[in-house]
Amino acid sequence: MQSTIIALLNKYGYFGIFSLIAIENIFPPIPSEVILTFGGFMTTYTSMNLWLVVLFSTLGSLVGAIVLYYIGRILNKERLIKIVRSKVGKILCLKEEDIEKADHWFDTKGNKTVFFCRFVPIVRSLISIPAGMSEMNMFKFLVYTTFGSLIWNFVLVFLGSKVGSNFEKIVDVIDKYSYITLTFLVILCIVFIVFLIRRKKKEQK
Fold first, then answer.
1. CA–CA separation, 141 and 24 (whole Å)
2. What is the pLDDT of residues 12-66, one digit of tens each?
3. What average pLDDT is seen over the chain?
């Protein structure tokens, strides 16, 4: 995948960066660190400008985030409540108040969450879905997404421009960071499932 990304960036420049970052936000497995660090490296041997690379990558981040936001709007709270009322909800031991609490939490903490999650691999993309589900104010969503993405993109593009052809070293570091994050999320999911099973057993007793 890395060689394909590099080939596309070499061929399409700014448009390639914009398109790949937009796709990466919708499909997190595509590595943004490769796109951004190599984009930074390209500023050292082509006419591409560092700030324009940051600009187009941030615009791509916004487009991808908006798509996921509206997916979240489609999967709104009312639909989730219907799922909770169904057999699926009973199997998972979910209750309507769980959805209400989650929605309230996002209403009060959503701004900071959207901003800081832009620095966390995988989560940085997926956070747009609960933002849409909770119907977070679009203007606030765009502001926090823009600033969070801008910082993340600038750091990686800047590092790519400094390390030059050694940009893969930065990619390796981010990969390790991503694996740690993914491991943490898996553990969190397991803990949540165990919690649901225990709660179901208590309710049965």
1. 19
2. 889 999 999 999 888 766 777 778 888 888 888 888 899 999 999 999 999 999 9
3. 78
113-158 confidence digits (pLDDT tens): 888 888 877 777 778 888 888 888 899 999 999 999 999 999 889 9
Give the DSSP per-residue string, 125-187: HHTHHHHHHTT--HHHHHHHHHHHHHHHHHHHHHHHHHHGGGHHHHHHHHHHHHHHHHHHHHH
Task: Give the C-alpha separation, 5 to 104, whole Å.
Answer: 40
What is the domain count for the chain? 1
- Which range marks the domain in which residue 13 is found? 2-204
Please say whether the dihedral angle defined by the alpha carbons of residues 181, 185, 190 and 192, taken in this order, is positive or negative: positive
In this structure, which amino acid lies at residue 168? Answer: E
- Tell me what the mean pLDDT of segment 98-107 comes to: 66
Contact between 153 and 39 under an 8 Å Cβ cutoff? The reply is no
Amino acid at residue number 178:
S
Cα–Cα distance measured from residue 154 to residue 55, given in angstroms and rounded to the nearest whole number: 9
- Written as one string, the DSSP assignment of 68-122 is HHHHHHHT-HHHHHHHHHSHHHHHTT--HHHHHHHHHHHHHHHHHHHHHGGGSTT
